[in-house]
């Protein structure tokens, strides 16, 4: 019964009769119960019986408590006594959520609207509209559940964590216990999503969630933080226990997983950051930061492992985050590169003639802050997911400069650029390469890959390399320093190798290094691969490399990486013959200075 209808009954109180009420009740769309001033049921409409399971006439003459579950009856009597004691019964209306009891004894959540009516006889009755709110309550409960849980995995979500953590930390302070956090991030989850689809990715996440739950205690809270990141909040624990659980999770989550969309079981690793604290001043935000730092170290040191937080790690990782921030500032909002990055060009030289025939393009962080080498910031850019934007910038600059130098009368034979694994799979790379021919002119584009990329190369990566090979020559950088072995050179579409400076730099003094260089050159020649020597710093190394059949080299003996302006000037001097021999150092002292 709506409030308007209740007020109408109240306004007609001097003339209302039970017969009038019976007619009104029959027309009401909601279940309605009428109770006299002693608490006895005197009228109900058919909808009450339908809702609570009673036949016609069964309820009249019974106390209203018949419809109230036993545990709630005492409270109802108190409420009724308070209500009956007011003089406003004829006009007041109240609403409350309680439970009604069906005939079979089961409870049903209801919403009750109550109105007082005075009959012509002067007696007072109470009219109650009773609505079944089972579905409404379920909807509210579902919303409340979703507010604190991840809908995919059923795990707690971040909001649940933030609600629970203060109580856990408070208990730690009271009982002098440790609280721990395990921060988990799946390794290579994106590859599953990209290759098998989001349905397979969801199935994988559900299985991962179940495996985590089986490895922790009932008092531990397992949380899906978002994406492929999970967390375990562990009260009443110890540093040793936290680390041990972390190791167990790495082992269990690395086991193959059967997916509906995958022809074979899928294996993903997990990087785990572990942190334990008994510091009474600690809070959940500090634990999350520490867990993240440890997790990032686990990723940076090989993935699929546990890293335990310590204060030294905070210093190291905060430095890494600072570098990431500098890199992001060097990239504008459109993904282009601002003045914070620069490209340098290291000469590639014909060892027989000393003539510069090309360059390797090397990126530099040039934002005016403290110097940071690419060996440090490139891995950080890879982890941050921005290295492809940097690689494409370097490629674009290299092609642009090659065209400008050719227009100035200084054509080159080789334009060499380094690529990361994510850049190889980037659609933008294919677009860039399709338009590269005009800028290259007669020059060859060399794309340098790392041994790790080859070792971890999946069939899609191998297929993409074959596609890239239609526009460029592919090379293996720093050959001999990793653990790829010679077999990978036969399995992957590689056109040249670069002998690492580790061997080239000591081949004059170390007979073993010289023998290794000789064997690598022989092997490459046997496969028809080109050879480029890195780290050439002395004329003795040049002579030895030439004797082994290596034609091209680079290193401080010939020149450090130069800005575009400096490299252009060197090319101009070489073209005009101003120097007796292009790229040859002016003096031994100058070469030594450049090597530093």
TrEMBL record:
InterPro entries linked to this entry: Biofilm_reg_signaling (IPR052155), EAL_dom (IPR001633), EAL_sf (IPR035919), GGDEF_dom (IPR000160), Nucleotide_cyclase (IPR029787), PAS (IPR000014), PAS-assoc_C (IPR000700), PAS-like_dom_sf (IPR035965)
Domain EAL: 320-575
Gene3D superfamilies according to UniProt: 3.30.70.270, EAL domain, PAS domain
Signal sequence coordinates: none
Start and end residues of each PAS domain: 17-62
Residue ranges constituting the GGDEF domain according to the UniProt record: 177-311
Coiled-coil ranges from the UniProt annotation: none
Pfam families in the record: EAL, GGDEF, PAS_9
PAC domain segment(s): 94-145
Name of protein: GGDEF domain-containing protein
Originating organism: Homoserinimonas hongtaonis
């Amino acid at each position: 019964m709506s409030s308007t209808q209740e007020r109408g009954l109240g306004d007609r109180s001097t003339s209302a009769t039970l017969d009038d009420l019976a007619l009104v009740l029959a027309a009401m769309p909601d279940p309605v119960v009428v109770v006299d001033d002693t608490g006895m049921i005197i009228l109900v409409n058919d909808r009450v019986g339908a809702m609570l399971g009673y036949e016609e006439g069964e309820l009249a003459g019974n106390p209203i408590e018949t419809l109230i579950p036993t545990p709630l009856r005492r409270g109802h009597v108190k409420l009724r006594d308070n209500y009956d004691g007011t003089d406003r019964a004829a006009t007041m209306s109240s609403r409350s959520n309680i439970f009604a009891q069906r005939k079979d004894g089961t409870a049903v959540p209801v919403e009750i609207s109550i109105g007082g009516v005075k009959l012509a006889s002067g007696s007072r009755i109470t009219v109650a509209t009773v609505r079944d709110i089972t579905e409404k309550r379920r909807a509210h409960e579902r919303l409340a559940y979703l507010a604190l849980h991840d809908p995919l995995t059923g795990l707690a979500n971040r909001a649940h964590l933030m609600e629970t953590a203060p109580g856990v930390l408070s208990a730690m302070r009271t009982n002098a216990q440790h609280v721990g956090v395990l921060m988990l991030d799946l390794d290579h989850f994106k590859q599953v999503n990209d290759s098998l689809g989001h349905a397979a990715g969801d199935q994988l996440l559900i299985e991962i969630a179940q495996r985590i739950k089986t490895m922790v205690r009932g008092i531990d809270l397992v949380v899906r933080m978002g994406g492929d990141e999970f967390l375990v909040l562990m009260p009443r624990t110890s540093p040793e226990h936290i680390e041990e659980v972390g190791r167990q999770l790495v082992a269990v989550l690395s086991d193959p997983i059967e997916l509906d969309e995958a022809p074979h079981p899928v294996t993903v690793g997990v990087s785990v950051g572990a942190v334990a604290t008994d510091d009474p001043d600690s809070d959940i935000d500090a634990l999350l930061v520490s867990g993240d730092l440890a997790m990032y170290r686990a990723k940076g040191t090989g993935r699929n492992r546990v890293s335990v937080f310590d204060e030294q790690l905070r210093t190291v990782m905060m430095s890494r985050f600072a570098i990431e921030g500098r890199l992001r500032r060097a990239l504008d909002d459109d993904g282009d590169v601002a003045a914070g990055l620069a490209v340098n060009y290291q000469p590639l030289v014909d060892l027989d003639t000393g003539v510069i025939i090309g360059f390797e393009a090397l990126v530099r962080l040039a934002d005016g802050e403290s110097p940071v080498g690419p060996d440090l910031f490139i891995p950080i850019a890879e982890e941050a997911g921005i290295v492809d934007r940097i690689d494409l910038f370097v490629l674009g600059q290299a092609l642009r400069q090659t065209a400008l130098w050719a227009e100035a009368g200084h054509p080159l034979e080789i334009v060499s650029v380094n690529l990361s694994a994510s850049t190889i799979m980037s659609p933008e790379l294919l677009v860039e390469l399709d338009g590269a021919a005009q800028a290259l002119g007669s020059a060859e584009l060399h794309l340098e890959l790392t041994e790790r990329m080859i070792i971890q190369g999946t069939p899609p990566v191998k297929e993409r390399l074959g596609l890239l090979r239609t526009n460029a020559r592919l090379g293996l950088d720093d050959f001999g320093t990793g653990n790829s072995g010679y077999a990978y050179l036969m399995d992957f579409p590689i056109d040249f190798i670069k002998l690492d400076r580790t061997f080239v730099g000591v081949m004059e003094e170390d007979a073993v290094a010289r023998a290794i260089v000789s064997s690598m050159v022989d092997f490459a020649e046997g496969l028809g691969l080109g050879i480029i020597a890195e780290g050439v710093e002395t004329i003795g190394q040049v002579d030895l490399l030439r004797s082994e059949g290596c034609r091209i080299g680079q290193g401080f003996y010939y020149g450090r990486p130069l800005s575009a302006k400096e490299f252009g000037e060197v090319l101009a001097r070489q073209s005009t013959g101003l120097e007796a021999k292009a790229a040859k150092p002016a003096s031994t002292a100058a070469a030594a200075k450049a090597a530093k």
